[in-house]
Design brief:
Layout: E1 4-9, E2 13-22, E3 25-35, E4 41-42, E5 45-46, H1 49-62, E6 69-74, E7 80-87, H2 91-100, H3 102-105, E8 113-126, E9 133-145, H4 146-158, E10 162-168, H5 169-177, E11 185-191, E12 196-202, E13 205-212, H6 217-225, H7 235-244, H8 263-277, H9 280-296, E14 302-308, H10 317-325, E15 329-331, E16 338-339, H11 368-378, H12 381-421, H13 424-449, H14 455-466, E17 472-478, E18 482-489, H15 492-502, E19 508-518, E20 524-532, H16 538-541
Parallel strand pairs: 1-6, 3-16, 6-10, 11-14, 14-15
Antiparallel strand pairs: 1-2, 2-3, 4-5, 7-9, 8-9, 11-12, 12-13, 17-18, 18-20, 19-20
Helix pairs in contact: 1-4, 6-7, 6-8
């Protein structure tokens, strides 16, 4: 794989690495950090693409880095993530399944978001009898607003770079360090200025990942508020103070300073206590996420807790986390298979964890239209070859087309001659259409002449044919739509059989009775009302 630039844009700084990834190993040629102008980046989204791109362009020029292809990593809280399990299908169908079920995963308007995924694991489940095994994908699905992709695309264009993709910071960090945590359960805490990401990795697989909206920004603002650390400090200067001076106590609730201490020492101790207190919410949220995981996995024990990101540089923060979380917290100094260049050994891997493996998992939150534009640009060099081949093919096709035209002309003459020979068929066809039209008219006329009373003859004939001879018809009347009569039969069973027999008459549509009366001699009289069936059409009645 050729060299690419991997860039993570945070609120406080821009981290850049020139890398080359081969398989699971990566080589880092250059890496450096650029302070981000205040307000240029907000919640992982670049607000001032022009000024930030100018700073990046100048830095790349000074370092003589000519690589233009760039992959970004962003950790915006506007990017939603969810664990999903889907059936084990071909990999080229996974994206379509995710897009089809996106509204079930996220309560958002998916037309305004870009969807991507990372395969966390392939799970195998056995049936209850233990005979059949079924596989399913365990995915981490991400949904990023298209505005983020648009901002990064504009940033890359202003910096003179070609954007290859955008990955999610949490996913990029996980795939960079998963080799370090192949055995056991481990926690990686990435602390930045405006937020913190917690990843719990069990035997090399991502078991839990959460983001919290607390970073070291509260500590930075507290440092700026106390003149003991310096007068009128901006955010960048306050960060330097946190990283270079001990501004944090080793515990949240420390005993106050000695009463014999000087006023200056007491004021400094108060300032440190306030800076420490400002980190309580961040530490509390980390602790709650750890407790949540343990409650779901009661036998789990954390082998290590490592810290990366901007927070790893803050003096005393590791000691504070160790005391409050009840377990040693260390800085992530190195990452397996990713070695830093000698020029960055003093900084350590903790700053560049998110830019070491930006595209390994395949997560790409870049808008598809942008990808298509990039693909067109990348294939422009092949257009010349295609043009030459097309020109040669065009000449050949022209010759073939001329020959084909002569053949088609000959075929047209042959067909015209055949049409002339078979012209008598048209007269037969026209005669058929005329006869069919007349038949349809007669059929319609016949339907107007039909009346339901025409079924009376058929009904009487069926009566004579199907009714027993011992039935006595006492009264009989017929209207245009129905016939009503009363009859006397020898018994109730004979009455029931008579009704059943009447319902088999083809000349009747419905048969109803108003009830039966049984005489003293056992005979039964009943009244019946019947509706004529629709008369048969013309073609059936003449058969």
């Amino acid at each position: 794989m050729a060299k690419i630039l991997s860039i993570e844009v945070e609120a406080s700084q821009v981290r850049v690495a020139e890398i080359e990834v081969r398989g699971k190993k990566g080589r880092i040629f250059n890496c450096f950090c650029i302070p981000a102008p205040q307000g240029a980046v907000e919640d992982g989204q670049i607000r001032d693409t022009k000024s930030l791109a100018e700073v990046l362009r100048e830095e790349l020029s000074q370092r003589k880095i000519k690589t233009k292809k760039v992959y970004f990593a962003t950790g915006s809280t506007r990017i939603a993530s969810r664990e999903v399990r889907i059936p084990f299908v071909k990999t080229n169908r996974i994206q379509s399944i995710i897009e089809a079920n996106a509204t079930d995963y996220f309560p958002i308007d998916v037309t305004k978001y870009i969807l991507s995924y990372s395969v966390t694991d392939v799970e195998t489940q056995k049936s209850e009898d233990g005979k059949e095994e079924t596989k399913q994908y365990h995915l981490m699905v991400y949904a990023a607003p298209k505005a983020i992709s648009a901002a990064y695309s504009e940033f890359a264009e202003n910096a003179g770079l070609t954007m290859a993709g955008i990955t999610y910071t949490g996913d990029s960090v996980y795939h960079a360090v998963r080799g370090e945590y192949a055995i056991g359960t481990h926690i990686l805490v990435k602390i930045e200025l405006k937020g913190t990401s917690i990843s719990i990795i069990n035997n090399g697989e991502l078991a839990l990942q959460r983001n919290i909206n607390y970073g070291v920004d509260s500590a930075v603002e507290t440092v700026r508020a106390f003149p003991e650390f310096g007068d009128r400090l901006d955010v960048g200067e306050a960060l330097e103070v946190l990283c270079n001076r001990r501004c944090i106590n080793s515990a949240l609730d420390m005993m106050p300073a000695d009463e014999m201490a000087s006023d200056e020492d007491r004021m400094l101790e108060t300032a440190r206590a306030e800076v420490t207190e400002s980190l309580r919410y961040m530490i509390g949220n980390i602790s709650r996420i750890m407790d949540y995981y343990i409650s779901r996995h009661t036998d789990a024990t954390f082998e290590t807790i490592d810290c990366c990101g901007l927070g790893a540089q803050v003096q005393g923060l590791m000691e504070l986390l160790t005391n409050e979380l009840g377990q040693p917290v260390k800085v992530l100094e190195k990452v397996e298979n990713f070695a830093l260049p000698s020029s960055a050994e003093n900084e350590g891997a903790y700053l560049y964890a998110a830019v070491m493996a930006p595209s390994i998992s395949g997560v790409n939150l870049m808008e598809k239209t942008s990808r298509k534009a990039k693909e067109k640009k990348d294939t422009l060099s092949g257009a010349i070859v295609i043009f030459v081949v097309g020109a040669v093919a065009g000449v050949a096709l022209t010759a073939a087309g001329y020959a084909n035209r002569i053949y088609q002309q000959h075929e047209q003459d042959r067909l015209n001659q055949r049409i002339s020979e078979e012209s008598s068929i048209e007269d037969i066809y026209n005669a058929y259409n005329t006869a069919k039209s007349q038949y349809d008219n007669y059929q319609n006329m016949y339907q107007y002449t039909n009346t339901p009373n025409e079924g009376l003859k058929n009904f009487i004939e069926e009566m004579e044919e199907k009714m027993p001879s011992d039935i006595t018809v006492e009264s009989f009347s017929s209207t245009g739509s129905q016939v009503s009569f009363s009859m006397r039969v020898t018994s109730k069973s004979a009455a029931a059989n008579t009704i059943m027999q009447l319902r088999t008459f083809e000349s009747l549509a419905t048969v109803t009775t108003t009830g039966i009366d049984e005489a003293e001699d056992g005979t039964v009289s009943m009244s019946v009302a019947c509706t004529y069936a629709d008369p048969a059409p013309l073609d059936q009645s003449t058969e």
